[in-house]
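Let's practice the habit of predicting before peeking. Look at the sequence and jot down your guess about where helices and strands might fall. Then scroll down.
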Amino acid sequence: EWEDYEYYNSWTWYNSNMFGSPNGRAMGAGWVEEFKQRLTDSNDFDWNTLALQNTTLDTNPTYFPVDQKLYFDFSHDSIITSIFTALGMEQFKTNFTVDGSLRETNFQLSKVVPFASQTYFEIIECDGEVSANRTEPETSSNSTTGTPNKYVHMILNDHTIDLSKNFPEYCSPRVDGWCEFDSFVKYLDTLWEVADFEEACFSGTY
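Done guessing? Here is the structure:
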């Protein structure tokens, strides 16, 4: 049956490239570090993380600019899911069962990385703080006023990803799924240690 095929492939992928793999996070950690540099318009790489990247390119502003309005990355679906794992996206964590009894899983391969899968991270700059619940009538207490603020909006295959459900310790709940930019960057700063690249890739346990 189609459901069995979907379940098997999702399970196999999950254990090869994602949270089910002991080096799932490490495989996507290099891109996450580059992403952080782009978000912060900096080229101040930790030399420990450069083991994951092409240092000739990433330390050269000609080949790795950090002052652009748009960045485009193209990669294999296995790398994309490893990036989601390196980001620690809680919504995809799943306990697959041997007998396949868990039919409703948090990760379905065909939905997350179908052919021509697209993921966007939008940086939204506002004149002030934006209300966490803009579905309510606007009042003076929840209107966009005050000090300029920035937010991160993630879209996967035309669907908004609620960042507060994935990174609840850093992103406050919002109806729009956004996360405050500064909080999101602080979260990215924690991910290299969590990925534990040296242990995952050189310990000989995988």
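How did you do? The chain has nine helices and four strands.
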